[in-house]
Design goal:
heterodimer, A: alpha+beta, 8-stranded mixed sheet, 4-stranded antiparallel sheet, B: alpha+beta, 4 domains, two-stranded antiparallel sheet, 10 helices, 46% helix
Chain lengths: 494, 310
């Protein structure tokens, strides 16, 4: 209270200045910079906590658009310094609800200020299928111009967050036995909504290939990130550290209040339905704003559901089987191929894309079950297809006739929420070659890594509350996972 | 605040006058009134108004950039800009005359926000703690500035899941003896052992950081070792395998001096000061209102506004 002095009181308006003088005075006091009070407060918070090499904060905002009840939120990440960010004022959903207006705002603002942006559609699973639609905001079919403008800014997509998985849903991938993971079948305001292709990332990537095939441009060429979207300011992505969606959900008792006879609050975000997810991993040359932003632009990023799996993916045509065991596997990858987020083309005659993949467990989480490659491609009729390949797995399990590796097992004791790493592997690496490659077909490949089953946050709550885990209405265990950004294959001349 | 106005006006005369006992301190901006004779029905348009208008129109704020933009406008474009400005200004004045801001909660909240920023800026401007006050603040918040222990080490890794005749643990013991016999140094570590997914050298890293990348069990075992510049120690087992380590430094937790942290402590003190000032200033403002709660059976002890009524 050193600065507070009762006698002096609060500085305020000069009561004796009247009329036009007063107006002129206030115009001077509330300058453009001052009027951006909220934006400035955000900038100040980012600046205060940005310690390159240790902790990097990026200046960003959310474009919180809604189309009816459908979530059309986008995160806008800048590469701005504090000074540069003070030169503009973000476009918000109060200015416009249309992403087209956001993109043209970014184009103009970049030209005026030199600041660059990356736009990340998020919680597309709650978009009612509108996030990756076949039409623009006016309902007109997507044109090459629209696709180019969108792809210029929308480089990444959120595959996982607290309010569910956006990677894929079982309804959209009936043969993917791991697709039923933290799926929300409702909109942001609680209305029921079944999964639609325009709401999920894998189907968006597939649509992207179809657009590339039909109009020549891919509007949905997206790398993968994860985030919490929690409203507590806490990065509570570990199952044993989950603290709920809002500040009022901090304890197991408070989270239970959404359930059973106590169904009194938070019916839109029942806490046990939320996931303790997710994270974004970035392959950057250093821990700084410019290096991380450049990695975003290269899409050299991947998403996890909260775990810190290490994941390297490289695509090329000349890997050796033994490269999977190389001590300098990343160097080999960069030398002989391209990293996640990049492109392949011009497959040499008789060759198919090969992928050098390396995954290592999070020392604070479970062992690894398996590594999968998810391929999407456009067939000769112009329709996109998908297939999941098991490419590396722990132990001596043998794939069945359908090519699928049997389940890894489950060591979780639901009475104690303890598990062992006696199953699974600490590291998995391989060189995998696409056995179904056709050099004239557009394709994408991304990697999904699964952990062994570990306790879900709702199980920890059930044990703390001495209730039956079934009363949480959620599974007691989950298989945490990582999703790499895709590598795209574009045939010569397409 | 003062700095902002000074910056704006160049060299204005600004006075703060205490109005005894009242809530408002007063400031004068002695500035030639630009519209003193202006008729309420006259809209005056000048270069500075148009520059501000342009910046708001494009939500970008860079006076130099817009100065250049403005100069580059054709006469027709300038006229279009004037028309746009006049349209907005006329509508704004009419809205004001009709009292349309009344009952508008967006404007209501914006005014509250402006008031809070004014208050905060007042506290920021007045903030200039003496060395003694800063030291006192630092002493009272010592725990916030404690620096965690740090360790410096390198490791040679033997992968449990790789093929090692006789087993990984035996291989690690054997390699450790070899490293010791050869006199392998800290910098030789990358030449030995298997691939590890995280770091090779850990320089002045905290136990938390080490636990995140090698596991809590490893971090605990490492903390128990005595540092040495030439001794290979371990192997320490992790979830990945066995680690032969050379630990060269283990710095215990310590409290830095105020001199080391001067700016950080000052910033923290500023934040606390502004928060406390705002709280008190708002209480002072509220104290000048009589609060009448009508038609609500409130518990006397739960009346949040009660302390404001004096």
């Amino acid at each position: 209270m050193e600065a507070h002095n009762k006698g002096q009181g609060v500085m305020g308006f000069n009561m004796s200045v009247k009329g036009a003088d007063r107006k002129a005075m206030m115009n001077q006091v509330f300058t453009p910079a001052f009027r951006q009070a909220t934006w400035n407060a955000e900038i100040d918070a980012a600046e205060k906590n940005n310690v390159p090499g240790k902790f990097t904060s990026l200046i960003a905002w959310e474009f919180t658009a809604m189309t009816g009840p459908n979530n059309m939120h986008r995160n806008v990440i800048t590469n701005a310094t504090g000074d540069a960010a003070r030169k503009f004022y973000p476009l918000s959903n109060y200015d416009s609800n249309r992403p087209e207006d956001l993109w043209s705002f970014l184009e103009k603002t970049k030209e005026k200020t030199g600041v660059d942006f990356v736009v990340i559609p998020h919680n597309s699973n709650l978009s009612g299928g509108l996030m990756f639609d076949m039409v623009d905001s006016d309902g007109h079919p997507i044109t090459a111009k629209y696709a180019r403008e969108r792809a210029r800014w929308e480089l990444l997509v959120e595959a996982t967050q607290g309010k569910g998985t956006s990677e894929i849903a079982p309804e959209l991938a009936p043969t993917d036995e791991f697709a039923d993971f933290e799926i929300w079948r409702r909109l942001l305001i609680g209305t029921k909504s079944e999964p639609k292709p325009g709401a999920y990332v894998r189907t968006a990537l597939m649509r992207g290939l179809e657009f590339k095939h039909s109009i020549g441009v891919n509007p949905y060429k997206l790398g993968m990130v994860g985030a919490t979207d929690s409203h507590t300011g806490l990065s509570d992505v570990r199952e044993d550290h989950f603290t709920g969606h809002f500040a009022a959900d901090l304890t197991p008792e408070e989270r239970m209040a959404d359930y059973g006879a106590h169904k009194t609050k938070n019916f839109v975000f029942p806490n046990w339905q939320l996931g303790a997810s997710g994270r974004t991993a970035v392959w950057a040359t250093e821990n700084s704003r410019p290096a991380i932003f450049e990695a975003f632009k290269r899409k050299e990023v991947y998403a996890t559901t909260g775990t810190r799996i290490v994941l390297r993916v490289f695509g090329g045509y000349g890997f050796k089987k033994s490269d999977a065991d190389a001590k300098d596997i990343a160097e080999v990858g960069y030398k002989k191929g391209v990293p996640m987020g990049a492109d392949l083309t011009n497959a040499p005659k008789g060759k198919a894309p090969e992928f050098l993949i390396w995954a290592a467990k999070d020392p604070l989480s479970g062992n690894l079950d398996r590594v999968q490659v998810i391929k999407g491609w456009v067939d000769s009729s112009g329709k996109a297809q998908q297939k999941v390949y098991d490419v590396a797995w722990s132990g001596d399990r043998k794939p069945g006739p359908d090519g699928k590796v049997p389940a890894v097992g489950n060591t979780v004791d639901v009475k104690t929420a303890e598990y062992t790493n006696m199953i699974g592997a600490a590291q998995l690496s391989t060189v995998w070659k696409d056995p179904d490659f056709k050099s004239d077909q557009l394709a994408f490949y991304y990697v999904r890594v699964l952990e062994i089953p570990t306790p879900r946050h709702s199980l920890f709550d059930a044990i703390a509350l001495h209730i039956d885990p079934k009363d949480t209405e959620e599974p007691a265990t989950i298989q945490e996972r990582a999703y790499s950004s895709p590598i795209w294959y574009t045939p010569k001349g397409q | 605040m003062i700095a902002r106005i000074k910056r704006l006006l160049g060299d204005p005369l600004i006075h703060f006058l205490a109005v005894g006992g009242l809530l408002f301190a007063v400031f004068y901006v002695l500035h030639p009134p630009s519209e003193s004779a202006a008729d309420a029905n006259t809209i005056v348009v000048d270069r500075s108004k148009l520059l501000t208008f342009m910046q708001y129109q494009s939500a970008a704020f860079d006076p130099n950039y817009f100065d250049r933009e403005f100069n580059a406008l054709s006469p027709q474009e300038k006229q279009a800009l004037v028309d746009k400005y006049v349209r907005e200004e006329a509508l704004y004045r009419e809205a004001n005359a009709l009292g349309l801001k009344e009952g508008d909660y967006v404007i209501h909240r914006r005014m509250v926000q402006k008031m809070l920023y004014l208050i905060d800026d007042t506290a920021s401007e007045a903030f200039s703690p003496s060395d003694g006050q800063l030291q006192k603040y630092f002493d009272a918040h010592r725990d916030n500035y404690l620096v965690a222990p740090s360790l410096t080490f390198t490791h040679v890794f033997i992968d449990k899941e790789a093929r090692h005749p006789g087993g990984a643990e035996k291989a690690a013991e054997k390699l450790k003896a070899e490293l010791q016999a050869k006199g392998a140094t800290f910098d030789d570590a990358p030449n030995y052992g298997d691939r590890y997914p995280y770091g090779q050298n850990y320089v002045k890293m905290t136990p938390d950081y080490i636990a995140n990348q090698l596991g809590p069990g490893f971090a605990k075992a490492l903390m128990a070792l005595k540092p040495s510049d030439h001794k290979w120690q371990g192997p320490i087992e992790s979830q990945f395998g066995y680690h032969i380590v050379m630990l060269t430094e283990h710095k215990p937790a310590h409290l830095p001096t105020l001199a080391d942290l001067h700016d950080e402590v000052k910033n923290d003190m500023l934040r606390d000061t502004v928060d406390a000032y705002q709280k008190n200033a708002v209480q002072d403002l509220i104290a000048h209102y009589k609060v009448k709660v009508e038609g609500l059976p409130l518990d006397a002890t739960a009346k949040t506004g009660a302390q404001a009524v004096k």
